[in-house]
Amino acid sequence: MELITINDNPYDENIYIYYDKESQEGVVIDPGDSFDIICDTIGKNNIKVAAILLTHGHYDHTLCVNELRELTGAPVYAHKDEKHLLQNTEYNRSGLRGLMVSVVPDRFFSDGDVFSFANGAELKIIHTPGHTAGGICFYDEKNAMLFTGDTLFRGTVGRTDMPTGCTQTLFESIRGRLFMLPENVLVLAGHGDTSTIGYEKKYNPVLV
Fold it and tell me: Does the predicted TM-score (pTM) go above 0.90?
């Protein structure tokens, strides 16, 4: 599996393109800003986008979802509990910026679902509410990679002071679910640098 990270946007948001080099099929995770860069990257690498996957519905992670879906024809997936936030411009915070971003997913995940693509690649859906009610992480067990969105960052956690957020719930999601994964699992967050589960368990000042 190949991973490309795009971070050239005003929100310091990590957009991930995760694909199989042999079949050229892959997914785009949290396409916020940088539509032109995403398109250029997909084109240069001849990537066939099987799906657009959303960890949660805040506008900085969804700004170009509708454009990318129209271009590629790829379905958009999100957790079922994120439906309202994705469509509500007050809840997803886009209205505060005058952007008015509203996304209607094509399909919905539930906790424990497995999304399969390419040559047997699998991403397990882990429901991690707290930052938002329908926040999820995508776990590639075979390659020990975890896409955490805004649930867990290197050295900190997602904020909980926005609609559907809850601090206690977020801590329970991280400690009770993510920290149960092997310590070598790479944490690929929605903002900032990469980390590992082991590092966050030992050194994250918010959680230790």
Answer: yes
For residue range 70-88, list pLDDT tens digits in order.
Answer: 999 999 999 999 999 999 9
- Alpha-carbon distance of 129 to 171, in angstroms, equals 9
Compute the distance between CA of residue 179 and CA of residue 55 in angstroms, rounded to an integer. Answer: 18
In DSSP terms, 188 is beta-bridged to 147
User: Tokens representing 207?
Assistant: 């959680």
Sheet arrangement for strand 114-117: 114-117, 121-127, 136-140, 145-149, 186-189, 195-196
The conformation of residue 14, written as its DSSP 8-state character, comes to P
pLDDT digits (tens, 9 = 90+) for 149-190: 999 999 999 999 999 999 999 999 999 999 999 999 999 999
Q: How far apart are CA 122 and CA 100, in angstroms?
A: 33
Q: Locate tokens 């790479």: which residue?
A: 186
Which of 66, 46, 33 has the alpha carbon at shortest distance from 190?
33
* Contact present, 106 and 178 (Cβ < 8 Å): no
Separation between Cα atoms, residue 205 and residue 208, nearest integer Å: 6
Q: What is the DSSP letter of 162?
A: S
In the block, residue with structure tokens 């050229």? 24
Is residue 10 predicted with pLDDT exceeding 90?
A: no
Cβ(125)–Cβ(110) below 8 Å: yes
Task: Note the helical H segments in the chain.
Answer: 35-44, 65-72, 83-87, 167-176, 197-203
d(CA 203, CA 155): 7
